């Protein structure tokens, strides 16, 4: 990976300090590991793992580049140059056979040649010594570089690599746990949807046994439905006492429709004595919770003066309130009174 690409992955400009580079790396890696742990699909998990790998590769590239810049440069001429020794040419002149040679002359010439050879060797010695010193210096720096390289590799394999492997193991375990939790959550949601669908089916029907099961489990709608069935004899024998009992259970369970039906029974004297005051109070309680049927009955009582002083304006107000909630009976009442919605 090139340095400029590594800087781009880390989101850093050129010239940042080593500490800034390390902080940026740790921050981005922590974010990616968190996303990996929360990724709901294997595809996203692989994507975040690859991003973490690229991020670590970018950081290592910049770290190695920084370490290389701190090392001394090697001498390109490492190994020493070759020194050429100028051959010693003998300066003894050829001896002419035709002339007698004086022994002293030969000795003097021999001594002169020997002195010149010694001078040439003396001149060549410093060149060889300098080459040896240069070769020794290069060998020293090569040894230092090799030692540093070994130390760096040892640090990576003993410290860095196990730490990276541990992080990957932790990330993998977190991802597996997240996947398991997601699967459990999905299964729970599926069970809840299936249960809700089954309950809706039961509540739409008249299966008394199934409705009793739901009611016993605390379902207030099932309680109210059973009260309605016993009130009108739907699928069961009509029984106002049982109906009132189920409506009472529904009210205690927080069902506003059950409160309306008890008021309806007091308004019409079904299983109880007619009591318009009680009926009005129950209708007002249900209406305050948004029960539109109760609003319509309040409006009707004001319109006809049933248990209250007749008041057309109050009747219209309650009809309008119920009509805004979509109640058709309230809309028809407003049409009868000639009041626009």
Description:
The structure is a single chain. The chain has 341 residues and is mainly α. It folds into two domains: 1-69 and 131-177, no CATH class; 206-337, Serine Threonine Protein Phosphatase 5, Tetratricopeptide repeat (Alpha Horseshoe), CATH 1.25.40.10. The chain is 75% helix and 0% strand. The protein is built from twelve helices and no strands. The two termini are 73 Å apart.
Topology:
Blueprint: H1 3-10, H2 18-38, H3 42-69, H4 103-204, H5 208-216, H6 220-232, H7 240-252, H8 256-268, H9 276-288, H10 292-304, H11 312-324, H12 328-337
Taken in chain order, the helices and strands follow as: HHHHHHHHHHHH
What is the CATH top level name of the largest domain?
Answer: Mainly Alpha
CATH-defined superfamily of the largest domain: Tetratricopeptide repeat domain
User: What is the global morphology?
Assistant: elongated
Provide a short characterization of the protein structure.
It contains twelve helices and no strands. It has 341 residues and is an all-alpha fold. It folds into two domains: 1-69 and 131-177, no CATH class; 206-337, Tetratricopeptide repeat domain (Serine Threonine Protein Phosphatase 5, Tetratricopeptide repeat, Alpha Horseshoe), CATH 1.25.40.10.
Tags for this model:
single chain, 341 residues, mainly alpha, Serine Threonine Protein Phosphatase 5, Tetratricopeptide repeat, 2 domains, 12 helices
């Amino acid at each position: 990976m090139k340095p400029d690409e590594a800087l781009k992955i880390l989101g850093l400009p050129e010239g940042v300090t080593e500490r800034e580079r390390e902080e940026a790396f740790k921050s981005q890696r922590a974010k990616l590991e968190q996303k990996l742990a929360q990724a709901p699909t294997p595809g996203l998990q692989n994507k975040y793992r690859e991003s973490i790998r690229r991020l670590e590769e970018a950081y290592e590239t910049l770290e190695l580049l920084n370490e290389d810049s701190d090392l001394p440069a090697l001498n390109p001429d490492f190994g020493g140059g070759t020194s050429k020794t100028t051959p010693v040419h003998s300066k003894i002149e050829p001896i002419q056979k035709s002339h007698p040679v004086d022994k002293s002359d030969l000795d003097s010439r021999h001594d002169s040649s020997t002195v010149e050879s010694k001078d040439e060797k003396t001149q060549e010695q410093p060149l060889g010594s300098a080459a040896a010193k240069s070769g020794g210096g290069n060998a020293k720096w090569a040894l230092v570089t090799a030692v540093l390289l070994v130390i760096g590799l040892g640090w990576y394999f003993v410290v860095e690599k196990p730490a990276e492997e541990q992080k990957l193991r932790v990330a993998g375990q977190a991802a597996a746990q997240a996947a398991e939790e997601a699967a459990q959550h999905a299964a729970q949601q599926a069970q809840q949807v299936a249960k809700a669908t089954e309950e809706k089916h039961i509540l739409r029907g008249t299966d008394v046994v199934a409705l009793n099961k739901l009611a016993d489990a605390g379902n207030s709608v099932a309680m109210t439905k059973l009260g309605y069935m016993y009130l009108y004899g739907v699928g069961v024998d009509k029984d106002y006492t049982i109906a009132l009992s189920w409506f009472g259970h529904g009210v205690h369970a927080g069902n506003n429709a059950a409160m309306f039906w008890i008021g309806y029974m007091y308004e019409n004297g079904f299983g109880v004595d007619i009591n318009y005051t009680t009926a009005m109070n129950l209708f007002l309680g249900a209406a305050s919770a948004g029960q539109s049927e109760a609003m319509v009955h309040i409006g009707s009582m004001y319109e006809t003066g049933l248990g209250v002083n007749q008041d057309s304006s109050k009747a219209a107000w309650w009809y309008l309130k119920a009509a805004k909630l979509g109640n058709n009976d309230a809309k028809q009442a407003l049409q009868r009174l000639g009041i626009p919605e």
